[in-house]
Protein: Indole-3-glycerol phosphate synthase
Amino acid sequence: MTILDRIIAQKEIEVKDLKAIYAFKQQKPVKRRSLYDSIQKSDTMSVIAEVKRASPSKGEINQKVDPVAQAKQYEKAGATAISVLTDRQFFNGSMADLSSVASAIPELPLLCKDFMIDRIQIDTAVDHGASIILLIAAALKEEQLRDLYGYAKSLGLDVLFEVHNEKEAETALRIGADIIGINNRDLKTFNVDLATTERVAALIKDENIAIVSESGIRTREDVAFAEGVGAKAVLVGETLMRSANIEATMNDIRIPLHKAVR
Ligand SMILES: O=P(O)(O)OC[C@@H](O)[C@@H](O)c1c[nH]c2ccccc12
Structure:
């Protein structure tokens, strides 16, 4: 059983519980800035800055972090969007973290970073202030991905559609995803390789699709590499969570875009 299998098994239990206890509140309209527009209009690398206390691959990263203080620093340093890990079991996050960040930061696009397998989790994310959800191609069948994608879009959400290989990228293209995240980390082995972005981005030729390079971004060189192969945005967690100077780290990441020929 891979770690992804274990996480999805846990999500099935959580969804069952949610269905029993979750009192659906009135759906709030999503009124944050659009992630898609922000990425597509920017002349510099867009940064989705992540609040992540711990992870199955790294263990403890920054256990004592105050998510609101961290997110405010991200905003001040020029983040395009904030991502909050909400999974409790494997990442030590919570929906409460998402809510408090949502109240403190009213405008930036806000990603509920979790493993979505059911519409009720999307409702919960919206209730807690998210404007973006993640769909992980490796976790679901194409019909489920299509259903959840359509549902999220119907609520006015942005969807970060995460892929790790060519086959998953083809699924993303068939579904019509406009923001494709290429995860450099294999969620089954934890292996990280930035060349994943290069390989998979080569298949995504449409300039109207925003490509996000995810995971393992540490240095300005890493960002330059991702930019050179077509990424207009990066999703960065650990490097920012460990940074002693978030403003300097963000300035390193926010490089100009060159309109790479792909
Ligand atoms: O901390 P990193 O290596 O900068 O990675 C951030 C982000 O890409 C990573 O947290 C992530 C990408 N896809 C995911 C899916 C689930 C949980 C976590 C993730």
